[in-house]
Predict the 3D structure of the following.
Amino acid sequence: LTLKPTELLLSFDNLVSPEAFGTISVNLTVPTVSGLSGVNMNVYMDLPNSGGRVLVAKYVDETGTNINQSIRVPKISGAFYTIEAHAGTPDKGSDIVIPNIGLGQQLTRTFLSTPILKLPDDGTTSEIARPKIEWQAVESANSYQLDIQSTSSRSFRWEAYTLKTDLKYPDFGSGKSGSLTAGERYRLQVLASDFDFGAFNILSHSQRP
């Protein structure tokens, strides 16, 4: 029987045989020191041979700091599953993505804490064209991404990657593309990541206007 992705959820509702389902055990924890609360998780089934996927489970706890669930998911030959989870808010949060999950797996992960910016201070007005940007190290993170965007309608975005916890803005030359403009307001975002394991990614971020 061949099912279209849009038919999958309705079809699974009508399958009463226990053999048609399997389980994935998930334990995702938010560190107390992070100050984050509110967790949500989507579980997707990656359809074999099609490249598509369908949402098969969803979990939301607006004030929680832990997801400890045994998830019942439909069993399809050759299918794997992906979990995407988020803790915190859109402006300050932490994400976990776990792809290529098989039935019966037990997954334990900890959300990364968010980077805490040290320099520049929130709302700082500066005439320095090449400001130093510094943040506190995040435990278990092995790399960082820095993202600067203009808050005006003028299109501007600059990003960089580093293994350190500080970065000096590069010298593009006065008036050149990429140079910071006096009187302009910018939004600064620092992301911490841990990509060592290959089978899953953990990413946290905080931003400041």
Notes: Residues 1-11 have pLDDT under 50 and may be disordered. The chain is about 5% helix and 50% strand.
